[in-house]
């Protein structure tokens, strides 16, 4: 499918009721209710705090794809793109009918509704669900396991979001979208089903390079059977980790949302049209591995050295706000920044007019009696 066709589909089907970073059951429930006459929406279980976990199927094809998002509650970009995708598949647009005919998607839009509401990675029992695949101590983990066993997917899409710190390799390129074909054994053997996942990732990467050249990365495939992706891969089901990352000045992750949507449609189009054998996996091996080389802001050449600042994502009155916090004061020539401020040897003061120090939280800094905002407008 042509990229311009996919971008047009996105614009026509973007779910306008979902935006920015805070996405909870309260946000998706009205959307689900409006789709209820077109989809069979189920409650497939409950969270620790007894909030419902929803799922739905779409499509009628033999190729089964299981997707789950917000296993980590504060990673919502892939959820927004799920509803953009759902609107597209329900639109009767001729360009996606082949996907519906060849594939059946089983979608869990928010696996961790308690974490989503609290805007935390963990669930209400303070457990990382992506480290609970073996012990299965949490109700949400059991819900996903039951869905996997009942649906018997041919492909799994493990949907996440990543921090702004990641670069695609060692270049000054933010890893805006990242992928992984997880390992399924300690030796990280490139098994047949890993090759299938790698081939699909290669196709998505080829499409994304036209939009964000050099800004796609892959994660280290060190094996951890406690992770859901590694567990499902070890059951010989090709599994793909998606990570929605940072695009320039896109802290609301709306551009990244479009890029994830492009990835969804590109991959489903490929799966629908092909018997994915894994023979064409080698391009995956050329995608650069993520490095942690970015800070949100670097104030360079201050009187005390370089000052590295990271934004703290904080939930305030049901809205995610970004609070700049001084993370490093040292020589940061090996790091990149999403925003750079040149201090030219000046002293940098915090909002109280005192010399800046690690741990300070400031919306602006003062240099030469001038207030300088740390937040991009």
From TrEMBL:
It comes from the Bacteria. Its cofactor is Zn(2+). Residues 14-271 form the Peptidase M14 domain. InterPro entries: Peptidase_M14. Keywords: Hydrolase, Metalloprotease, Protease, Zinc. The active site is at 243 (proton donor/acceptor). Belongs to the peptidase M14 family. PANTHER family: PROTEASE FAMILY M14 CARBOXYPEPTIDASE A,B, SLL0236 PROTEIN. This is DUF2817 domain-containing protein. It comes from Aestuariibaculum lutulentum.
